[in-house]
Amino acid sequence: MTASRTEAVPTDAIETDATGPSRGEVDKTLRAILCDVLGLDQERVERFDAETGLFGHLPELDSMAVAGLLTEMEDRLDIVIEDDDIDGEMLETYGGLLAFAEAKAVQG
């Protein structure tokens, strides 16, 4: 009988398959990013739904914070966000940001 060895997996690592990470994994990672970048309380972010307003609704999400948010999304979701990809609609609600992140994650 051989001993099995387990390795620590970073908590921000996401599982993927041939079509990219699961919706739940992208959602979980995106919520963690919002907490970390904007300094939001985890309980508050857990209550976000698709209609929760972001840019223009959260004082923490100003134009400077957007740059940090997008950079963290690229790093943690292993995606590339081009300048042309960014519009006000994707940042308007949590649902819009999640849909954007999911689409980019599938593109890989």
Please give a handful of descriptors for the protein shown.
disordered N terminus, 4% strand, globular, 51% helix, mainly alpha, 2 strands, Non-ribosomal Peptide Synthetase Peptidyl Carrier Protein, Chain A, 108 residues
Question: What can you see in these coordinates?
Answer:
A hairpin with a 2-residue loop joins strand 1 and strand 2. This protein starts with 15 loop residues before the first strand and ends with a helix. By secondary structure, the chain is mostly helical. The protein is built from five helices and two strands, in the order ββααααα. The chain has one domain: ACP-like (Non-ribosomal Peptide Synthetase Peptidyl Carrier Protein, Chain A, Orthogonal Bundle), CATH 1.10.1200.10. It has a two-stranded antiparallel sheet with strand order 1-2. Helix content is 51%, strand content 4%. Helix 1 crosses helix 3 (63-77) and helix 1 packs across helix 5 (94-107).
How many DSSP E strands?
2
From the N-terminal CA to the C-terminal CA, the straight-line distance is 40 Å
Shape, per Cα inertia axes: globular
Number of helices: 5
The helix-and-strand class reads mainly alpha
Order of helices and strands: EEHHHHH
Q: C-alpha Rg, in Å?
A: 15 Å
Tell me the domain tally: 1
The level of helicity is 40-55%
- How much of the sequence lies in strands comes to under 5%
Give the neighbour order of strands across the main sheet.
1-2
CATH fold name, please?
Answer: Non-ribosomal Peptide Synthetase Peptidyl Carrier Protein, Chain A
Poorly predicted parts: 1-16
Region (Disordered): 1-25
Domain Carrier: 21-105
Protein name: Acyl carrier protein
Organism: Qipengyuania pelagi
